[in-house]
Specification:
The strands form 2 sheets. A 4-stranded antiparallel beta sheet has the order 1-2-4-3. It has 9 helices and 8 strands. It is of the alpha+beta class and 267 residues long. It folds into 2 domains: 92 residues, Roll (Endonuclease I-creI), CATH 3.10.28.10; 141 residues, Roll (Endonuclease I-creI). Strand 3 and strand 4 form a beta hairpin. 40% of the residues lie in helices and 19% in strands.
């Protein structure tokens, strides 16, 4: 008889900052494995960022082993956490993390107070931030990208960002090198909006990927932008942005999203 490893099987039962962050990361770099020949159902998290897999293992109170996977000299080392649990499998499946989800996943309904945590989790998995520099090496533009095989997921994500934080860019493009994949691409002002949205309030080290956060803060230091100056820049929205936001706010006003608990208690 094999060794039985434990994990918090109630983790995804109740909305909270930790739950929303991990769910966002699962939509990006998680998967469900149904193995009927083993009578097993597995939740998998795989990433080249070892600290994200370690953080999720900790948040889930998992005793499972993280496996290192070397796939060749031209690829980064990946780390895999694989949890056998019918309960976690079924709960995540109900939340939208379905088997073979990459092309078909839909944006989940959630209490909007946890949207920033969900978006940050997804960004840490399938997002990137980089700085376009001029000939002298000085930063010119701050650029953010979200990637997915599901066009519908990215369209809904973009709509939420327009409605909630005033994103201006149109956003959605075919992926440049991967057939059937799509990207949301945002330039400097929208990237600053994302930065303020995703990292508002205190955030523990388990709930954000430091190397991506550091790119944002490096750009701000180099441009000598204070929090007040960022807000001043972002107020320069223009009439197009206002019209776009108003239309999406009316659209989402008709969607009933069930409220979550006001206070999250880890179980």
């Amino acid at each position: 008889m094999g060794v039985k490893y434990s994990s918090n099987e109630k983790f995804f039962d109740r909305w909270g900052r930790e739950m929303a962050y991990v769910l966002g990361f699962m939509f990006a770099d998680g998967s469900l494995e149904d193995a009927p020949y083993l009578r097993g159902k597995y939740v998998r998290v795989s990433s080249t960022d070892k600290d994200r897999v370690v953080a999720i293992k900790s948040l889930l109170n998992s005793d499972h082993t993280i496996v290192r996977r070397d796939t060749g000299k031209n690829h980064k080392t990946a780390y895999l956490l694989r949890i056998g649990s019918h309960t976690l499998f079924n709960r995540l499946n109900n939340l939208g993390v379905t088997p073979h989800k990459s092309l078909t996943m839909q944006f989940p309904k959630m209490p909007l107070e946890y949207l920033s945590d969900f978006v940050r989790g997804y960004f840490d998995g399938d997002g990137c931030v980089y700085i376009d520099r001029g000939p002298n090496g000085q930063p010119k533009r701050l650029l953010c990208v979200f990637t997915s095989g599901s066009k519908s997921f990215l369209q809904d994500l973009h709509a939420h960002l327009v409605s909630r934080i005033g994103i201006v860019g149109t956003g959605l493009y075919p992926h440049g090198s991967t057939c059937g994949a799509y990207q949301l691409r945002y330039s400097t002002r929208d990237s600053l909006r994302l930065f303020q949205f995703m990292y508002k309030g205190p955030t523990s080290k388990e709930l954000h990927l430091r190397r991506k956060y550091d790119i944002f803060t490096w750009y701000l230091r180099k441009r000598n932008l204070s929090a007040k100056e960022i807000s001043s820049v972002l107020r320069q929205n223009g009439p197009v942005a206002k019209k776009q936001r108003d239309g999406l706010q009316n659209r989402y006003a008709r969607v009933r999203i069930p409220p979550g608990p006001q206070k999250y208690e880890k179980v």
